[in-house]
Amino acid sequence: METDNIYANVNTIKGKELNTDDIQQQSSETSNSGMRSADRRFVFQRWAAVGLFSVLLLTVIIALCVHYNTVIGNLEEKHSSHGSILKTNYTRTWKWVDDRTLNTGFWRTGEPNNANLGENCANSESNDSPKCGWNDLPCIHKKSWICEMPVKQ
């Protein structure tokens, strides 16, 4: 027996006489509507996943920006300096560039010593403790010089 006859026999039993073209058309319509529904569901799931991934990625980017801004801020606090503390010529008095006298300092042991004469600027060596790392050097050296900054609140 052929498969066409089987379908014809089943339809005859049910009281309907359908040809094989009608049966194939019905089955393709049923499967197409099922596929469209499944496709829609799949597309929705993909877009939901993309949206969730985007939110997660944005959160990570924001967290990294906050972290690196904090790190950069701390580095700037440690190394933010540019020729602002000077020794007045021919004296041992250290002053800020706005002419106020330096009242406190964090000099290394034995500093300021004016060892090479003309050491009229101060810098902080990063390998030393920040509380005792100041050194006097000639101002012509390209260094990170010490400056006075207002306290951040």
What does this structure look like?
The chain has 153 residues and is mainly α. 46% of the residues lie in helices and 9% in strands. It contains two helices and four strands, in the order ααββββ. The protein has helices at 3-13, 20-79, and strands at 85-87, 94-96, 121-124, 134-137. The strands form two sheets. Strands 1-2 form a two-stranded antiparallel sheet. A two-stranded antiparallel ribbon has the order 3-4. Strand 1 (85-87) and strand 2 form a beta hairpin. The longest helix is centred in the first third of the chain and has 60 residues, at 20-79. The chain crosses the membrane at residues 47-68. InterPro entries: C-type_lectin-like, C-type_lectin-like/link_sf, C-type_lectin_CS, CTDL_fold.
Brief rundown of the structure:
The chain is 46% helix and 9% strand.
Distance between the termini: 92 Å
The largest pleated sheet is described as:
2 strands, antiparallel
pLDDT averaged over residues: 69
Low-pLDDT stretches are: 74-83
Using the alpha-carbon principal axes, give the shape.
Answer: rod-shaped
- Helix-residue proportion: 40-55%
* Strand coverage percent: 5-15%
Number of helices: 2
> Could you spell the SSE succession in H and E letters?
HHEEEE
Keywords: Disulfide bond, Membrane, Transmembrane, Transmembrane helix
Transmembrane segments: 47-68
InterPro entries: C-type_lectin-like, C-type_lectin-like/link_sf, C-type_lectin_CS, CTDL_fold
Domain C-type lectin: 94-148
